[in-house]
Amino acid sequence: MSELAAEYGVHPTMIHLWRTPSSTGAADIFERGARKTSEVDEDTVRSLHAKIGELAVANDFYCESSSPGPESEVRDG
Questions:
Q1: DSSP code of 11?
Q2: Mean pLDDT of successive 10-residue segments in the chain (77 residues)?
Q3: Which of 15, 19, 36, 70 is buried most deeply by CB count within 10 Å?
């Protein structure tokens, strides 16, 4: 651990804190991995897609409104 700590510039205690949960729970993550994707709630997926759409529209609106357009050129010129 001291070699890893020296190589990555972290304290050995931090490596120990990261290593313990990952080594005890890693097998469980890989066992559940394939089943997790099929257990996704369809209503949750729909609501998340709707939220993504709302945010994309809002982002486009703010990008267009913040960029100088032809109106600002007429006033400046």
A1: -
A2: 86 83 70 59 91 93 76 52
A3: 15
